[in-house]
Amino acid sequence: MAPTGQRRSGYSRRAQYNLFTGYIIAGIGALIGAVLLALSFFQPQLFGGLRGAAADTVSPATQTSATVRTGSKSIWDSVSGYYRAGSKNAELKREMEIARIRLAEAAAVKSENQRLKALLGLQDGDVKPVAVARLVGSTASSTRRFAYVGAGKDQGVEIGMPVRSPRGVVGRVLEVANDSARILLLTDTESVLPVRRASDETVAFAEGRGDGLLRIRLINLGINPLEVGDMFVTSGAGGFYRPGAAVAILVEKTDDGGLARMVSDPAATDFVSVDPIFEPEAVVAVQTPAETELDE
Amino acid sequence: MERIDPRARSDAYGNRINRSHSALLANIVPWASILLGSILPLFFIASALPIMPPVGFLLLLGWRLVRPGLLPVWAGLPLGMFDDLFSGQPFGFGILTWSLALIAIELIETRLPWRSFWQDWFTAGIVTTVYLIAGWLLSGGSPTLHSLVALVPQLVLSILLFPVLARLIARLDQFRLHRWKSL
Question: What ipTM was reported for this prediction?
C-alpha cells in the first residue's frame, strides 16, 4: 500500500512535535524493554505476580477450551477406534493375556514387598494430592516449555510441588497465582530431574533439551549400560519428587547416556495432580549454603 | 436509482445514506486484534516443539505493513508488555523486540516508500526470523542447538501464515470502517 503522508509534517508545529514525540517514545520504549529484560534475567520471579494475575484473568476461557479440547479428542479417538477394529481386537486379546500373567506376578511381588516392609517396620502411606486440576494451557509459541494448571494458591498449591499425570511426571510448579499455577515441563531446557533406571539402581539426570526429548546423563561414567527401551523413574534425590514415578523411555543411546522420550506427554494429558513436596526438609537443606547451619 | 443498481448508494463499507463510521470501532479493532493474537497461543498444548506461530507479533507486523500509519511507532511498548504476560519469555522481551521491530519497519519505509505485497511479505519474513532467533537466545534458558533446530517448523509456519493474516487484516479493516446506522 502507498505510504501515508503522515511522516511529512510540513510547517505545522503541532504535527512536527507529534511526530518527534512518537519517535522519542518508541526509542524510550525499546530502552525500557531492554532494562526490564535484563532485570528479569537476574530476578526471573520479579514479574511473576503480574503474569499470575494475567493467567488468572484468562483462566475461565482456557478452562473451557481445555474441556472442549479433551472432549473433541475423545470423539476422534472413538472414531479412529473403528478403523481396523478386528485385527486390533485380536492383538489386544493377546496383550491382555500376557498382562494378566504379569499382573499375577506383580501381585506376588507386592505381597512379598509388604511382608518385607512390615518386617523392617517401614510404613508406606498413600500420598494424597494437594489438588487435581486440568492442564489448561501452555506457552505454545515460546522456546520455553511452560504449562498452566487450573489450581493455585486457593487450592493450596505451592512453588516447587511436583505435578503428575496418571502416566507419570509432568513437571513442577514454578509460579503460583490465586487460581492458576505455571509449571515448568520436563522438556524445558532449565529442567533437571534426578532419575534411576527402573530395572536397577543406575542413577542419572534427565535434562530437557527444548525439542521434546530428554537427555539422560549418567552420573557414573564408564561403560554405558543403557539400552533402548529402558524405563526411567524418579529416584527421589533432591527431595522434590516421590521416588518411583515414571519419567521417560530411552529411544537413543549416546556416549554419556542417551535420549529419552517423556512417558507422560502434556499434549495428551487431561487431568494432572499436584502432589506435596516429597521431603521439604531435604529441599531446604539442599538450598542452604554449606557455611550456614540449618535452624531446627 | 436502486432499481437500476442496488449498490449505487453504497461502497465497500456499506450504505452511505444515514450511516456513519463508529469512532470506537475504528480505533479499537487493530489493538484488540493484536491483544487477542497474543493470548491465542495459550490455548494450545504443544509439548514437543514450539510449533505455534507468535500470532500477536505477526498481527502487529500485518497491521503495520498492510495499513501503514494506523499504529503509532510507540505501539510496541504497550502491546509488547501485554504479550510478555502470556508469551512465556522473560518479561521485557516483548517490549524490546516489538518496539525495535516497529522502528526497523519505519526505517525500511523511509528507504522504500512504494512497496508491493511481496516486498512486505519479505520484510515480515526477515523480521519474524530475527524475532524468533532473538527469542531463542533471550529465552532465559540455555540456548541449545537442539532447541534451535526445533525452531525451524515454527519459523516456516509463521512465514507461511503471514499472507493469510494479511487477508484477515484487510477484512478486519473493512469491518473497522463499516458504516453503522445512525439515528
Answer: 0.83
